[in-house]
Design brief:
The chain is mainly beta. It contains no helices and 11 strands. Strands 2, 4, 5, 6, 9, 10 and 11 form a 7-stranded mixed sheet that branches. It starts with a strand and ends with a strand.
Length: about 120
């Protein structure tokens, strides 16, 4: 099992910035991925950004150039720096962790991000 504890989020005006953090604990295998999904009301959950233990990253087209994902492996923590926020970024953001070798996924409880226009 892997436990995830998220922090950050909140209310910000359009053009502002927020940073999300997610700390993982438990059975963390060497080959893994950490990242963020989001779900807006009435929409499906979508990938925002992910970062693999080897370093490669992946972003949704809608956030490229505005969001940056990073990891501190010593702290087992992943961060999402969100700049130039738009009202359409409003959603519940979920941290996730995947132990790739055993295809096991774990989810955080979600944190609300609201961007006002």
């Amino acid at each position: 099992q892997v436990q995830l504890v998220e922090s950050g989020g909140g209310l910000v005006q359009a053009g502002g910035s927020l940073r999300l953090s997610c700390a993982a604990s438990g059975r963390i295998l060497n080959l893994n991925a950490m990242g963020w999904y989001r779900q807006a009301p009435g929409k499906q959950r979508e990938l925002v950004a992910t970062m693999y233990s080897g370093g490669p990253t992946q972003y949704a087209d809608s956030v490229k150039g505005r969001f940056t994902i990073s990891r501190d492996n010593a702290k087992r923590t992943v961060y999402l720096q969100m700049n130039s926020l738009k009202p359409e970024d409003t959603a519940v953001y979920y941290c996730y962790f995947r132990n790739i070798g055993i295809q096991a996924d774990y989810w955080g409880q979600g944190t609300q991000v609201t961007v006002s226009s």
